[in-house]
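Bumping my old thread because nobody answered last time. Still need a sequence for this structure:
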């Protein structure tokens, strides 16, 4: 495209002034430069828009995954119900609830242990997909009671969701965080 524009400009320079007036003028050259600058500006702008759209779709997907995972953890007991007494390989899906919004301390400790020691298999059973995951339990003073040791590196996106649950008769915050690592 640039070569074609260069040929057009070259032809314009070769034109001669005839008897009726001037064929080539600096105005044409300025108009061509402005036109090319506008094309470059819109090309760069469109790439930025596509990148923002990709990030928006990733945020939406992360939000869906996080809500689904946290709902499963808070509202179900898991399968089998006593999964916290066995090996991670025997778990169909995880759930921390004794009842709706009332979580079992042993299941929290076991899940965090599985996340720390058998991360990939546990992540697969949680249904996290391409995202990384960590879990924390925080009391209302802001102290972390339980936390997986997973750290995220070089993230493109990090998103968290908090749920208020009852643990041993005390209200605490169960926080799940997903991240997309490059």
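Sorry it took so long. Here it is:
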């Amino acid at each position: 495209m640039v070569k074609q524009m260069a040929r057009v400009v070259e032809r314009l320079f070769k034109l001669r002034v005839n008897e009726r007036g001037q064929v080539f003028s600096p105005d044409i050259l300025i108009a061509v430069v402005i036109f090319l600058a506008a094309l470059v500006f819109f090309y760069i702008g469109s790439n930025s828009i596509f990148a923002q759209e990709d990030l928006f779709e990733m945020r939406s997907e992360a939000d869906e995954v996080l809500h689904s995972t946290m709902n499963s953890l808070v509202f179900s007991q898991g399968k089998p119900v006593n999964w916290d007494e066995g090996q991670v390989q025997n778990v169909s899906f995880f759930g921390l609830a004794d009842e709706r919004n009332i979580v079992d301390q042993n299941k929290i400790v076991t899940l965090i242990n599985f996340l720390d020691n058998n991360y990939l298999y546990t992540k697969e059973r949680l249904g996290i997909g391409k995202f990384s995951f960590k879990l924390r339990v925080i009391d209302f003073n802001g102290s972390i009671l339980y936390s997986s040791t997973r750290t995220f590196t070089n993230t493109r996106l990090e998103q968290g969701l908090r749920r208020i649950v009852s643990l041993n008769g005390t209200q605490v915050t169960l926080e799940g965080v997903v991240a997309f690592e490059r």
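The mean pLDDT is 85. Let me know if any region looks off to you.
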